[in-house]
């Protein structure tokens, strides 16, 4: 029999490979344990199809228009910045920076959130000031420090390009080229940026060999209220509760960020920020609303010590009794939440 060299998952048990060896395959492995099989309770983490609003159900024409607009810098105030400038598909649909950079090159106050799985969100922006993905799409355009879009000029530009007029008509027949249809198209495209086929998802769906025993231990620590307690906020299925929490991030004196409190002035929300999804988390460093943590290890250390600024901590924040091995296991688990990287080719923009 013709022999093949095959590299299998490094956590596969030797006994699982007897059949392969008997078939004449050369198998390269490392000895390690398989994770236990998933139970019915574990399937709560599996995501369904992204929800869509009744007035903006995705169609190929809407997604194509939204993609063009997402990558088109001409809709910004000076024609140099697009949505993709800060939400770069090559950088986890974020920008890899501690905090974002505005249209004039100035440093913004908060990190750029990822677009990944925003389709499942019910709150948008770090402080929740936007209530729909369509509304969120216009936010950076209307912010002078970000895209600084002159909508009168931008809509006139789009209307004046025959290719764009045709795309708008195909996507939203009978509707005008407007702020509303622009926002709807971008939102329709952003709803295609979905992560729900990670190794953890494969394990939860029944593939026992998709994660290792160490990664499974990290999962159990992550969900255990007496240990990691991470799932108190990073809830199934999208690893977020769409809520706001003060997790004890310290700020330089005089540069405190009140977060959700500015939108809803309730004492408990002072310094509280939206819980981000953890899906594809290893692609979206740095972490926290101000980019204070460079690595997942730093994130876990922050939670283990119970935060830094404890003046208005969330009730779910407390020092954790985690060993070095526990921390490593939790980080290993979070790395299983990365789906195959979703690339995005640059669209040919209408001229």
UniProtKB/TrEMBL annotation:
Residues 1-31 form the signal peptide. Residues 61-162, 213-338 form the Cytochrome c domain. Gene3D superfamilies: Cytochrome c-like domain (1.10.760.10). Its main location: periplasm. One of its GO terms (molecular function) is cytochrome-c peroxidase activity. It comes from the Bacteria. It is an enzyme of class 1 (oxidoreductase). It is found in: Periplasm. Keywords: Heme, Iron, Metal-binding, Oxidoreductase, Periplasm, Peroxidase, Signal. InterPro entries: Cyt_c-like_dom, Cyt_c-like_dom_sf, Cytochrome_c_Peroxidase/MauG, Di-haem_cyt_c_peroxidsae, MauG/Cytc_peroxidase. Its EC number is 1.11.1.5. This is Cytochrome c peroxidase. It comes from Ideonella lacteola. The lineage of its organism: Bacteria, Pseudomonadati, Pseudomonadota, Betaproteobacteria, Burkholderiales.
């Amino acid at each position: 029999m013709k022999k093949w060299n095959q590299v299998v998952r490094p956590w596969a048990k030797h006994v699982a490979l007897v059949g392969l060896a008997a078939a004449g395959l050369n198998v390269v492995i490392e000895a390690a344990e398989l994770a236990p099989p998933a139970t019915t309770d574990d399937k709560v983490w599996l995501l369904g199809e992204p929800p869509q609003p009744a007035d903006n159900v995705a169609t190929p024409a809407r997604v194509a228009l939204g993609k063009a607009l997402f990558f088109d810098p001409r809709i910004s105030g000076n024609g140099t910045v697009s949505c993709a400038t800060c939400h770069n598909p090559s950088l986890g649909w974020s920008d890899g920076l501690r905090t974002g950079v505005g249209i004039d090159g100035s440093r913004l106050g908060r990190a750029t959130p990822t677009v990944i799985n925003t389709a499942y969100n019910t709150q948008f922006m770090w402080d929740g000031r936007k209530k729909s993905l369509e509304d969120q799409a216009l936010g950076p355009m209307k912010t002078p420090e970000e895209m600084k879009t002159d909508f009168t000029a931008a809509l006139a530009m789009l209307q004046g390009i025959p290719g764009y007029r045709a795309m708008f008509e195909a996507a939203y027949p009978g509707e005008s080229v407007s702020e509303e249809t622009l926002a709807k198209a971008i939102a329709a495209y952003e709803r295609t940026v979905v992560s729900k086929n990670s190794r953890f998802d494969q394990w939860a769906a029944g593939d026992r060999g998709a994660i290792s025993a160490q990664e499974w231990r990290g999962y159990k620590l992550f969900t255990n209220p007496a240990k990691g307690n991470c799932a108190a906020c990073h809830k199934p299925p999208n690893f977020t509760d769409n809520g706001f929490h003060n997790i004890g991030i310290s700020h330089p004196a005089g540069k405190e960020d009140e977060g959700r409190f500015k939108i809803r002035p309730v004492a408990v929300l002072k310094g509280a920020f939206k819980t981000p999804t953890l899906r594809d988390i290893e692609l979206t460093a740095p972490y926290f609303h101000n980019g204070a943590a460079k690595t997942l290890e730093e994130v876990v250390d922050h939670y283990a010590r119970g935060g830094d600024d404890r003046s208005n901590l969330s009730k779910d924040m407390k020092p954790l009794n985690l060993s070095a091995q526990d921390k490593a296991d939790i980080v290993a688990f979070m790395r299983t939440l990365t789906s195959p990287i979703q690339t995005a080719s640059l669209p040919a923009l209408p001229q």
